[in-house]
Amino acid sequence: MIAAAGFFSAYGSEMLQSTREHMVLTLIAMLVACAIAIPLGVVLARSRLKGLVTAVMGLVSIIQPIPSLALVALTVVLFYLINEFAGARVLATLGTGPALVALVAYALLPILRNTYTGIRQVDPTIVEVATGMGMTQRQILFSVQLPLALPVIMAGVRIATVWTIGVATLVSLVGAGGLGDLIFRGLSTYRINLILAGAAPAAGLALTFDWLLGRLEKWRTPGGQADRQQQGKAVISSGTKAVIVLILFAGLVVGLVATTLLGRPHGKHLTAGFTAEFMERPDGHKGLVKAYDFRFAAEPKQMDPGLMYKACADGAVDVICAFATDGRIAAYDLVTLDDDRNFFPPYYAAPLVRGDTLTRHPKLEGILNRLAGELDDATMRGLNLQVDREENPRKASAVARDFLVSAGLIEPDAEPGDGSAGTVVIGGKDFTEQNVLGEIMAILIECSSNISVERKLYLGGTMICFNALKSGDLDLYAEYTGTGLVNILGREVISDPDATYEVVKKACKDEWNLIWLKPFGLNNTYTLTVRKKLAEKLGLKTFSDLAACVKDQRGE
Amino acid sequence: MIAFEQVCKTYAGGVEAVRDLTLEIPEQETLVLLGTSGSGKTTTMKMVNRLIEPSNGRILIEGEDIMAQDAIALRRRIGYAIQHIGLFPHMTVAANIAVVPKLLQWSGDRIAERIDELLNMVGLEPDEFRDRFPSQLSGGQRQRVGVARALAADPPIVLMDEPFGALDPITREQLQNEFLELESVIRKTIIFVTHDVFEAVRMGDRVALLDAGRLQQVATPKELVESPANEFVDQFLGQHRFQLSLLTQTVGSIGTTAVRPGQGPCPYTPESVSPRTSLVDALDMFKKTGKSALPVFDHRQYVGEFAKRDLLQTITEVLGETEAPSGETCGDSTSGGAG
Fold first, then answer.
1. What residues of chain B lie within 8 A of the CB of A230, using their CB?
2. What are the φ and ψ backbone dihedral angles of B87, each rounded to 5 degrees?
3. Which of A118, A292, B70, B324 has its CA 20 to 30 A from that of A378?
4. Among candidates B49, B83, B130 on the partner chain, residue whose Cβ is nearest the Cβ of A132
5. Could you give the CA distance from residue A556 to residue A554 in angstroms, rounded to a whole number?
6. How many CB atoms lie under 10 A from the CB of residue A428?
7. What is the pLDDT of residues A416-471, one digit of tens each?
């Protein structure tokens, strides 16, 4: 109970905020989807052109089998391509825009299909009688066909709403907020509580809307229970009921949008875009605002590590938690600020290997230690950029191989061994540098021994990798000393790099028999990064400058 | 008056539903279109309110070609009733009846008044039925509402497409009788479609028998039964001739002798007949009352007495006239053994 109370005091307001964002996204998406799909369904149902019906239905049906996650991703890329085509930034590639487009696209089919079927299944005799009585086409549609099709249409809206609530958890990945923020933070930091804090309201919303819309369907059905109980002379016509329902929905949406907008600060404030992991880890957003004693005017937007740099360059956000060794900082004309209070620990990257793996493959330690000191910050930035750049990007495996050859660690024509010495599993977190480091280690091992390598790169975050390593699902991955110290061991920051390394090395060996091999040389620290122009305009050089600037804007 | 002038309807695909139909329906007449399915009777009816448009020929209402009129306005002046599925299931009884008055933008008070008036007219208690939905009505009640709806805006012309089609025989006959009574009060020009020859004979001032799109005969029920115009009509009536004769002959039509002066004027009672009562109904009334003679009222005026033996004698005569064809059939089938 105490734990629960603590949890709610820590996350309660975020849960409320996220739930509200989630509902706003869902409702706006549903209203837009209804506004498109219902008229379209009506037109199709009344159209005599069979070809048109097949074509439109087919087109919309194509969207449905696309996995929802892929659809969200596709929308972002589509927006990006539109910008490229227009030669200007006409659309924000991140945030609510692409999220809504994806959600609407996903909700279209069930509503369209049900509207079409609903209208088509109205007894043709009824329509003929209506015609024979002298109703116009319009009157037939609004007083006969639509009311009779309404239960079927409502069923479609209900299905679409429940789907949309589910899919809306994914748009957190593109910075659109919602309950997905909590879920992905929970996943990247391995906190069940946090996952539940996102998942439970999402499930609750889905069930509530399902129930509400189900009630509405029954209420609307002629001859239903409600109708039988209807007494007195005031007959509420079905048209009036539909209008009441619409007004209630519109009111709900307006209310939610208004409170969300009012809850936001006015004017131009610095906005932050951070990864889910950074939002949650102790050496992330929480520690940072404590150490520098400031608070962003708006809750930082949560986004995928890969999308963050472009979002900053495009002005979708102003401050990001960049990785120091990411090539895109320079490529996108961003500058890193100086951590003048030494909040971030050093994050030297090194292979972290299971003790029993080293026993099983005694050669492994020697092979991996050949990488020691070979990868300094500049080298790593260069490699990362080759993968991340927009023009002619390369595959991480090709970049890794070229690096190994040019560093003289393998021969240009080196071939993988025969795999007779067994297999090791290499993991990696979900960003480019981890992918490149994973490939470097994998190719080096393959070409220097008969050990074969299974790659499990692009796992959800630090705690997923680390727990998989502990449990033996992974044999090794590249970890950063600072992350080990603060995030895994939960210790205080030590600013000396060697001391940090020694502490994590000893603790991991003693506690879990996990071995830190020699560092690669790079220090991939988190660093707050802004657009160069913005930094010049506001005179930002250090984290303290940023904190002061944010405080000024808040009027503190 | 409705006039069909050489009207043809050929559907896409070349099916000729109606061929060269010329027919006049005087004001206040009930004309029954009778025929089997595919005879063109429904097509003929639907051409009047332009649900179907003729391929050739003209249809005139009060001398005006309907094709020259606005279809929507035309339809609002013509009542339309079909089998019970014709009620809008999502509307209450009141809302169903109010459809055309609303289209004609009557005031709310006038509509409410008219609804109650019509419900009373078709024998449904307004307070009980006004707010019900069609799903909460019996088949007979639905038909009554259907009739009330067709009469709602007091149209001079009413089209009825098998309005009593989906009912059990008892309810059906009851509704037919009620409608006949109603009709004698409201006096409309009615086109009534049915495939049931008994219903046709019972309901129609005249009956138009159609087959394969062609008009075979148009005549009063009595003429139709007594002098079929051709082989087809004769066969169509076929084995029903005896019952039809009893239906088309009325107490007043079987001869002046039938109604004798009785014991003198007496107050009106429902246990009576009128000169227009068919012999079938008169027979029912004798069965029901068990009397040997019934008082005859013409418009509730006592005119005399009708004796059971006169009825039975007439029935025997009719049986003699109509027996021959069925007797032959019997003879044919048994002649091999008896000859």
1. 131
2. -75, 145
3. A292
4. B49
5. 6
6. 25
7. 888 888 899 999 988 889 999 999 999 999 999 999 999 988 787 788 889 889 88
